[in-house]
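Deliverable D4.2, example record:
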Amino acid sequence: MHYGVMMFATEYAIAPDELARALEDRGFESLWLPEHTHIPASRQSPWPGGGELPREYWSTYDPFVALTAAAAATRRIKLGTGICLVIERDPITTAKEVASLDRLSGGRFLFGIGGGWNAEEMANHGTAFKTRWRLLRERVLAMKEIWAKREAEFHGEFVSFDKIWADLKPLQKPHPPIIIGGDGATTFDRVVEFGDGWMPILRPNRRNPVERIPELRERLTRAGRDPKSAPVSLFFAPPNRSALDALAAAGVERAIFGLPSEPRDAVLPKLDAYAAVMRS
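Output generated by the structure prediction step:
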């Protein structure tokens, strides 16, 4: 099993380049950064984590900028968005950002994506909550066309453009892995159609998403895909050896530990503790 770390990268936390170096030095496989462009002050949408929304949700660096800094400071560690809110991004611009980061990192980018939970946030980007998944689907399919073709075009309900030239293509072929976040009723529809992995969150007092791995593999098989062609990455995996062994036995390929958005003096000891569990 691979081991990664997720943190909200903020100006008051350890810098993303220093964090990436520390992870690489300790043998971690990947670094994951989430994004929110902003949080509407109305706070109408409840936070899925429960309670008060932490400050880091409206304090994050842009993940592509932060991951580029991390890429420049490292050589081996993989760099992922966890998650990129595709529903709030122009697909042509995002396709170029993905290709740029993948090239500049030497093919180390992992494109974790999702639809988000904050209806007011996405509304400020012109996205309707009820149709966000259809929008996400078209934007991903349009980006795949851009990455694959010399002259790409796409015509759908939400995304439409005639033939374009966008020659900066990702280093990874046909593109970096597209890892689908979420754990809803239709999540596997997206994983099966255009995903290269599944990335659920382990939340307290909720059904363990690992229980759905057999269902995912069955869906992939029915679609004519290899049942292991969409590996599972679990966010907020418990840093406990027996629990990690159980996750590996259940089919989880990557365990991702959560880090608080704190300065280096608070973060580095936590990394050491995670690394000790990882090596045990």
